[in-house]
Specification:
single chain, 2 domains
Length: 108
């Protein structure tokens, strides 16, 4: 939470969960401001990924992608998280699923 020194109003930014974000979004962020009538969402940013391209491609039957031939193949190192839920669950109790999702999201 950040306090605006000019108006002394409170501003709050949050990540929306999968239940409150649009079906096409892979990530959403909201900016809310505390007004005299309560919290009001001022800005909502949704990462639509390639949703529009996929829908248009499915409708037209033509792929809307760009491919580039590389002179040498790329080598990518990936990390995999392996959480021991027998230890993780009791430690975080009722928040273990949410905490696990946050940990996985931060690593990606």
């Amino acid at each position: 939470m950040v306090r605006n020194p000019k108006s002394n109003k409170e501003v709050f930014g949050l990540v929306t969960n999968s239940y409150s974000q649009a079906h096409y979004a892979c990530d959403c962020w909201d900016l809310e401001v505390l007004t005299s009538t309560g919290w009001v969402e001022c800005v909502g940013c949704a990462d639509r990924s390639a949703y529009d391209l996929a829908v248009h491609g499915n409708f037209t039957g033509k792929p809307l992608v760009v491919r580039e031939n590389l002179e040498q193949p790329r080598t990518v190192e990936e990390w995999v998280i392996d959480i021991d839920r027998k230890k993780f669950g009791p430690y975080y109790k009722g928040k273990s699923k949410l905490t696990e999702r946050c940990v996985i999201y931060q690593v990606i």
